């Protein structure tokens, strides 16, 4: 007798949608007792199981006090993004179908959806239509893949096969990257065996974009060293975007592989009002971008994109399929382009998000977030805050004179109207506000501005 999933799945969907329906009315971070929360989940593993309906109710009740309102309209910490109705529903369906997105043979539908979604995503971001796309867990995974391909490429140019011989005894590789690179670059270098010591840091200009003349000087220093240049579309603190039109041709002329970490920023290429910031980005060799941040797809989902499909597959695939065929991205199965072998069919949710929004919807989403970031800056400045960055995208850095930033951030989080985090940038402790949720309204921004200023007033 087969189990009828319908009532159970319907209940799970009901609980999930109830969370979303009320998330905007509850404190973004409700007060909770962490000892209690841990105790409810912990305890000895039972000898016998319980029915799935009971598991679901138990889980929902146990988790409720510790759920953060990250999917809601006033969560402005990190760069979290929301998750759109269609993409969330598509992910639920992906779980129902439980497809393994390794290849056409394992799931023709998952493969077709991913190929289409990857194609659309590249088009929106202005990236080469023939680039290969691997659906990974996020920008961490995507940056790791991009740097792995770069590592292989620059060593291959010296006659060293990293695929066969690894790194022991290989020529040294340097990774020229901004002093304001994202921490995931350093983790990728640890995982790839290059080590964080491979980084040659490039000074950033006042707003956190790479200083291109400093980059030029570094590239000139050891022209014979195998070099990867890692650029950034969207500094996580300021939103600043590197000068791709200058930096990429310069780096490539020096023989370097160019990777762009565009976790959230690359989507700015989808809007006519911010597209100019991305000029030249299509010239890079590889790109990492998240779907789960600004595109508002559920966690976890990112895209590892590469101009050179054969090198992409050669770097991360275990199959020999890449040795045959024309070298087009479609010659490779999905699993040739990701470090994972078996995995969830992430492409359905991306396909659904892009179908739901269309070209104009993605542009509107980008424009809305950027406009709301400017609204934050204006509202807070009017209330006496100092704005530390040019608000070019969706990130805002502020502090208030005479107010301890960490105390302010803690007070705002505890009050619950909104959630913001603190960061250290150019030696200063600042509040970082990131707008990346499609459900955020101007009124949410105004309420949050008022809550922040009120918290600040209570501390002085
Ligand atoms: C968020 C972010 C990352 C890491 O992305 P994950 O989705 O957490 O893996 C990398 N780079 C930048 C600029 C980011 O904003």
Describe the structure.
The chain has 460 residues and is an alpha/beta fold. The protein has 14 helices and 11 strands. The strands form 2 sheets. A 7-stranded mixed sheet has the order 1-7-6-5-4-2-3, with helices on both faces. A 4-stranded antiparallel sheet has the order 8-9-11-10. Helix 6 (139-156) packs across helix 8, helix 9 packs parallel to helix 10 and helix 13 (405-415) packs across helix 14. The chain is globular and about 60 Å long. Bound molecules: pyridoxal-5'-phosphate (PLP). Pyridoxal-5'-phosphate (PLP) binds at residues 79, 138-140, 182, 184, 234, 236, 261, 263-264, 290, 302.
Which descriptors apply to this entry?
binds pyridoxal-5'-phosphate; 460 residues; four-stranded antiparallel β-sheet
Secondary structure blueprint with pairings:
Elements: H1 6-22, H2 34-41, H3 52-63, H4 85-97, H5 108-125, E1 132-136, H6 139-156, H7 162-165, E2 174-178, H8 183-191, E3 199-202, H9 212-221, E4 227-232, H10 244-253, E5 257-261, E6 286-290, E7 302-306, H11 309-316, H12 347-382, E8 386-387, E9 395-399, H13 405-415, E10 421-425, E11 428-434, H14 442-459
Parallel strand pairs: 2-3, 2-4, 4-5, 5-6
Antiparallel strand pairs: 1-7, 6-7, 8-9, 9-11, 10-11
The structure holds pyridoxal-5'-phosphate (PLP).
Pyridoxal-5'-phosphate (PLP) is lined by residues 79, 138-140, 182, 184, 234, 236, 261, 263-264, 290, 302.
């Amino acid at each position: 007798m087969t189990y009828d999933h319908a009532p159970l799945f319907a209940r799970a969907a009901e609980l999930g949608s109830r969370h979303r329906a009320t998330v905007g009315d509850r404190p973004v971070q409700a007060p909770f007792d962490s000892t209690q929360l841990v105790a409810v989940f912990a305890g000895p593993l039972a000898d016998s199981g319980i029915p799935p309906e009971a598991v679901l109710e138990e889980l929902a009740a146990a988790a409720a006090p510790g759920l953060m309102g990250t999917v809601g309209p006033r969560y402005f910490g990190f760069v979290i993004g929301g998750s759109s109705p269609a993409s969330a529903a598509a992910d639920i369906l992906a779980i129902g179908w439980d497809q393994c997105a390794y290849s056409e043979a394992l799931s023709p539908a998952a493969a077709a959806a991913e190929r289409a979604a990857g194609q659309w995503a590249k088009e929106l971001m202005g990236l080469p239509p023939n680039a290969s796309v691997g659906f990974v867990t996020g920008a961490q995974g995507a940056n790791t893949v991009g740097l792995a391909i770069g590592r292989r490429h620059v060593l291959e140019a010296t006659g060293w096969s990293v695929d066969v011989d690894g790194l022991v005894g290989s020529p040294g590789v340097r990774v020229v990257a901004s002093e304001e690179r994202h921490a995931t670059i350093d983790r990728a270098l640890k995982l790839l065996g290059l080590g964080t010591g491979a980084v040659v840091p490039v000074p950033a200009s006042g707003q956190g974009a790479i200083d291109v003349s400093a980059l030029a000087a570094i590239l000139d220093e050891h022209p014979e060293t195998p070099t990867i240049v890692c650029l950034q579309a969207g500094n996580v603190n300021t939103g600043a975007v590197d000068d791709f039109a200058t930096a990429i041709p310069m780096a490539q002329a020096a023989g370097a592989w160019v990777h762009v970490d565009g976790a959230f920023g690359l989507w700015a290429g989808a809007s006519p009002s911010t597209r100019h910031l991305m000029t030249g980005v299509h010239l890079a060799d590889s790109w990492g971008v998240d779907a789960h941040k600004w595109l508002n797809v559920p966690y976890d989902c990112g895209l590892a994109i590469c101009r050179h499909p054969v090198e992409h597959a050669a770097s991360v695939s275990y199959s020999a399929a890449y040795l045959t065929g024309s070298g087009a991205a479609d010659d490779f199965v999905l699993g040739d382009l990701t470090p994972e072998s078996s995995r969830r069919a992430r492409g359905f949710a991306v396909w659904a998000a892009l179908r739901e929004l269309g070209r104009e919807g993605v542009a509107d989403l980008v424009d809305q977030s950027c406009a709301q970031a400017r609204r934050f800056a204006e509202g807070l400045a009017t209330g006496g805050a100092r704005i530390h960055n040019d608000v070019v995208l969706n990130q805002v850095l502020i502090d208030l004179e005479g107010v301890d930033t960490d105390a302010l951030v803690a007070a705002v989080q505890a009050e619950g109207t909104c959630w913001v985090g603190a960061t250290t940038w150019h030696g200063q402790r600042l509040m970082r506000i990131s707008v990346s949720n499609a459900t955020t309204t101007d009124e949410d921004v105004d309420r949050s501005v008022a809550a922040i200023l009120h918290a600040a007033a209570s501390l002085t």
